[in-house]
Amino acid sequence: xxxxxxxxxxxxxxxxxxxxxxxxxxxxxxxxxxxxxxxxxxxxxxxxxxxxxxxxxxxxxxxxxxxxxxxxxxxxxxxxxxxxxxxxxxxxxxxxxxxxxxxxxxxxxxxxxxxxxxxxxxxxxxxxxx
Length: 130
Known about the structure:
CATH topology: Rossmann fold
Radius of gyration: 15 Å
CATH architecture: 3-Layer(aba) Sandwich
Oligomer: single chain
Shape: globular
CATH superfamily: Alpha/Beta hydrolase fold, catalytic domain
Largest sheet: 4 strands, mixed
Number of domains: 1
Low-confidence stretches: 43-47
Strand order of the largest sheet: 1-3-2-4
Mean pLDDT: 82
Number of helices: 5
Distance between the termini: 20 Å
């Protein structure tokens, strides 16, 4: 099903609908997905900056960074296997058709900015896979 999900997200992006794999897996029915897309403000190409994988919890949040592809396919899969009382957020890469960053420093600054939207002060818990 993962390949079909990737194809669907790609087709939606080509049609101007910004959707991540994590969002697709979190909204598995057509009705749930339509509800998600109807709630979005702004243009359809507007990218999500932080993906909520698991909301709530009493411990510090965990921030998952995208893999080398920039895709966020592993966020919901890994998130459901992590036990603990902490929220989990995914930080996706830059979407297709958007201008890419040229240096690691720029990418790191972008990630820090997104993390601080959720948690203004550290220390921060990070996870990644590639």
